[in-house]
Amino acid sequence: MKYNPVTTDVITELIAIVGEKNVILDPERMEAYSHDETPSAQYGRMPEVVVTPVNTSQIAEIMKLANKRLVPVTPRGAGSGLSGGAIPQYGGIVLSVEKMNRILEIDYKNMMVVLEPGVVTNEVNELIAKDGLFFAGYPMSLESCYIGGNIAENAGGGRAVKYGVTGRYIMGLEVVLPTGEILELGGKRVKDVTGYDLKQLFIGSEGTLGIITKAIIKLLPLPKQKVDLLVLFKDVQTAIDLVPEIMTKGRVVPTSIEFMDKLSVQTSCAYLNEQLPYQEAGAMLLIEVDGNHEQQVEEDAEIIGELCYRHGALEVYVADNYTTQERVWSVRRNIAEAFKVYSPHQSLEDVVLPIAEIPNLMPYIEEISQKYGIKIPVYGHAGDGNLHLTLVKNPESTMEEWYETEDKALREVYMIAKKLGGTISGEHGIGSKRNKYLDLVCSPEELRIMKALKQVFDPNGIMNPGKIFPT
Amino acid sequence: MKIIVMIKQVPETSEVKMDEHSGTMVREGVESIINPLDLYAIETGIKLKEEYGGQVIAITMGPPKAEKALREALAMGCDEGVLISGKEFAGSDTVATAYVLAQAVKAVGGYDLVLAGERATDGDTGQVGPGVAALLNLPLSTYTSGIVNIDNNKITVERLIEEGYEVLELPLPALLTVVKEISFPRLPTLRGKQRAKKQELQFWTGKSLDLDIGKLGLKGSPTRVVKIEHPKVLRQGKICRVTDEETLVEALDSLEKFLSEKKLIAKEGKV
To answer: B34 to chain A nearest CA, in Å?
Structure first.
């Protein structure tokens, strides 16, 4: 696909639509819009112009203009993505929703909120906590990410074992199509089988079908109590083996079962100047249970804790108040950040498998790590079968060697995931980071249908090009 | 070694709300936790016990629900818990609290070391630890950041001071208030929690301690909150739009006026 550059004419028209103060041309300021949380040297691309519209009709006008002029448009939330979704692969216009950040309605009777896409996810939860409500589908980056990005990527997170991912809570969307039409999909209806569920197509569409300009989101009653268990195991396999049993034998559905290997805990602790007793432990599980009654929650935690002891846990620590819970979760939350400080050249992966297959993955990872001479720390949402194994560049290798190793090792990791009934991304998305690997797990027929769908929404291919599909 | 750790339970939130009339903290509806800085004192006590043997006794003065904080201390590894509770203690300031705790420490008796956190995160005074030391006539090290050695009935500690560290040698028994640098508090284990849940606590009152009622609670507290004020942020910016020469002059004039009003420059533009 050949795109046209952003000419002074286009800029004049953009200024006419959104006003001068909502058009960014200064390269220094635009730099911030050229990358997300993927390594910028590898995936970053500069936009030609950044626009920050303030309402839906401005977005519709921008899309009409871009569609007419054949200029690519990349929608952008907070830029905390991990697959390059918000990066302007072919330059053009970056459309940031940062100024559309109003909470439009809190509907207590229907237990729903109506949000603009630029609302920071955690702001909603902070606002409604006093009313005993919460939005349960949030990712780990909740303090910075935007709800629009969460929906576009169908973000997961640390509570998915019990509460599922973002998509489960999206009741309705307002979207602007690449051709400029405004669509209202879904609504405040719990059930709806009126034709195809088009709303669902936009959840996880990675900004390739249109721009989300409004979302209706389902809330849940906020559980009053929670207890966390930090469980130490002698090695990775013992810890991972236990994960499927927590639910099958313990008969308790925790909110999270997070896994961290020794290297992950060590790196994060060093970064935070924290000390957890990791020296003697090869791996840890962080398990959270929640509920409304203190006694019930304590009992659930005890059942799981005893199960851990019986299965060879070295120690089970209990965090049942804010201080201790913050300590253990902060170690988990900061792993990705800590590895970035430790080594900027890495590939943060997101494979997902049937939960029962998780133990079978580990020996392969160890094999690949040895074969290519790279470190592969593993952490992530073990309870969802979703692991963030991270391929870290060997400091002695050149960048060329690393890119080659990365590609080969990734292909092996992905093929093993596929063999075990899994796939290449559970919550981070395909974007520009994994698009060349999509055909490893999607059949040609599946890809044909996806491309045909894309064509229906975006006939000129201007909407976030270079993402999802192998190019 | 017999070590006594004095702990306090504080509201779980970082936003402490004050009652404008009584001048005391609003504790209703807020979950209580062990004062985060006291965790470092508990850890220090348990570590010393692990090294030198002996026992660690946690004591706290507070409402009945402070039992939870005490059980958390037991779960971490303290051997015994003492809760001093009763209506007579309500409204105690740091003087009254130090008096009660000093009497309780005396009642425990036979101790080698008394530990406390540097201060509580709610009241933020840091007075109770030193107060207890004064009342019991114990040698005191505040802001203790490390224990160097215990030998021959003497303890050598390092304490954080503005210019760096100071090394002190104190005869035992002594009282130390500790800062975060001294340790990494351990998390309670499930086994510890289970043990702590079943363990008997000691409940003491003003009467059982044979305390002077006049020195307790609001009437035993010389501290009076006269007024509570919230600092207000009064800073605000002013934006001057400059599009041509005329507006530039206007902008400069208003800047000059502002600066001279604030007495930052002399009148008539002399800097």
So the answer is: 9
Between positions 188 and 247 of B, the ones with CB within 8 A of A are 188-194
B36 in contact with A, Cβ within 8 Å: yes
A319 contacts B186? CB cut-off 8 A: no
> What ipTM, to 2 d.p.?
0.82
The structural domain count of chain B equals 2
Tell me if A63 sits within 8 A of A180, measured CB to CB: yes
Do the chains contact at B190 and A274, CB–CB below 8 Å?
Answer: no
Q: Does B187 touch chain A (CB under 8 A)?
A: yes
- Look at residue A447 and tell me whether its pLDDT is greater than 70: yes
State how far residue A318 is from chain B, nearest Cα, in angstroms.
Answer: 6
CATH 1.20.58.100 for the A103-221 domain, yes or no: no
Please provide residue B82's backbone torsions phi and psi, each rounded to the nearest 5 degrees.
-125, 125
**Mean predicted confidence (pLDDT) in B133-139:** 97
What digits encode the pLDDT tens for the residues A57-112?
999 999 999 999 999 999 999 999 999 999 999 999 999 999 999 999 999 999 99
B73 interface with A at CB cutoff 8 Å: no
Determine the pLDDT at residue B106. 95
Structure tokens at A270: 């060093």
A20 neighbourhood in chain B, CB within 8 Å: none
CA distances A2 to A66, A90, A464, B169, Å, are 13, 9, 14, 79
Query: Which residue pairs, CB below 8 angstroms and at least 24 apart, start in B132-135?
Result: B132/B6, B132/B98, B132/B101, B132/B102, B132/B105, B132/B175, B133/B175, B134/B98, B135/B98, B135/B99, B135/B102
Contact across the interface for A321 and B72, Cβ inside 8 Å:
yes
Q: Bridge partners of A113?
A: A106, A217
Residue B12 distance to chain A (closest CA, Å): 7
Domain A343-441 is in which class? alpha beta
pTM of the predicted model, to two decimals? 0.85
Tell me the backbone φ, ψ of residue B184, rounded to 5 degrees.
-110, 110
In CATH terms, A225-336 corresponds, of 3.40.50.300, 3.30.70.2190, 3.30.2350.10, 2.60.40.1940, to 3.30.70.2190
Same domain (yes/no): B158, B249: no
The answer to whether the peptide bond before residue B130 is cis (omega within 30 degrees of 0) is no
User: Quick one: pLDDT band at residue A143, thresholds 50, 70, 90?
Assistant: confident
pLDDT tens for each residue of B29-86: 667 789 999 999 999 999 999 999 999 999 999 999 899 999 999 999 999 999 999 9
Residues B271 and B182 placed together within one structural domain of the fold: no
Q: Inform me whether the pLDDT recorded for B271 exceeds 60.
A: no
Residue B12: which of A318, A321, A327 has the nearest Cβ?
A321
Verify that B133 and B210 share a domain, yes or no: yes
Question: Is the CB of B12 less than 8 angstroms away from the CB of A317?
Answer: no
Q: Looking at beta carbons, which residues of chain B come within 8 Å of A318?
A: 75, 187-190, 192-193
B34 lies within 8 A of chain A by CB = yes
Q: Nearest CA to A350 among A75, A84, A105?
A: A84
In a domain, B225, yes or no: no
Domains A8-98 and A103-221 belong to one CATH topology:
no
| Domain at A8-98, CATH class | alpha beta
Residue range of the domain that includes B271: 231-271
Q: Which of A123-137, A293-307, A335-349, A421-435 has the lowest mean pLDDT?
A: A335-349
What pLDDT digit, counting tens, does each position of A1-41 carry? 689 999 999 999 999 999 999 999 999 999 999 999 998 88
Query: Other C-beta atoms within 10 Å of B110: how many?
Result: 7
Give the chain A residue whose CA is nearest to the CA of B193.
A318
Q: Which of A20, A225, A297, A324 to mutate to test the interface with B (most CBs of B within 10 A)?
A: A324
